[in-house]
Amino acid sequence: MKRIIYRIELWFLIIGLLLLYGRLGSWIVFLIFYLLPDITALGFMFSKRIGEISYNCSHTLIDPTLLLVFILVVPSKFNQILISLTLIWLIHILVDRALDWGLFPRI
């Protein structure tokens, strides 16, 4: 039951972030950048360990959250673009988790 509630929470958060993104960003940009965090899976070409580390680094909520805080604290003329890209990153991670594609190692 906890797992079902967790997934429902994730999908509600994803929908909320998608609605927010729709007010800030372009859907073409969304389609272009949505799979960008998965490029880190190329680390698996070198070794399983490097692949897991590189994938996990781009799929943890810590990085985009810290980036979002930094963007909000340090004003810039690029804030809207950076916030849009950060939202795409967060949505990507949350969709992966909602589909049960968590971090490595997967058991």
Q: Regarding quaternary structure, how should these chains be classified?
A: single chain
Head-to-tail CA distance between termini: 20 Å
The sequence of SSEs as H and E is HHHHH
| Coarse morphology | globular
Mean pLDDT: 95
Helix-strand makeup class: mainly alpha
Instruction: Report on the biggest sheet.
Output: none
Low-confidence stretches: none
Q: How large a portion of the residues is in β-strands, by DSSP E? A: under 5%
Q: Got a strand count?
A: 0
Cα gyration radius (Å): 15 Å
Share in helix: 55-70%
Annotation field: number of helices: 5
Could you walk me through the main structural features you see in this protein, from its secondary elements to its overall organization?
With 107 residues, the chain is an all-alpha fold. Helix content is 68%, strand content 0%. The chain contains five helices and no strands. It has helices at 2-24, 27-33, 48-58, 62-73, 79-98. Helix 4 packs antiparallel against helix 5.
Using brief descriptors, characterize the structure shown.
mainly alpha; 0% strand; globular
Short characterization:
The protein is an all-alpha fold and 107 residues long. Helices cover 68% and strands 0% of the residues. It is built from five helices and no strands.
Q: Topology of this structure?
A:
Blueprint (H helix, E strand, L loop, with lengths): L1 H23 L2 H7 L14 H11 L3 H12 L5 H20 L9
Helix pairs in contact: 1-5, 4-5
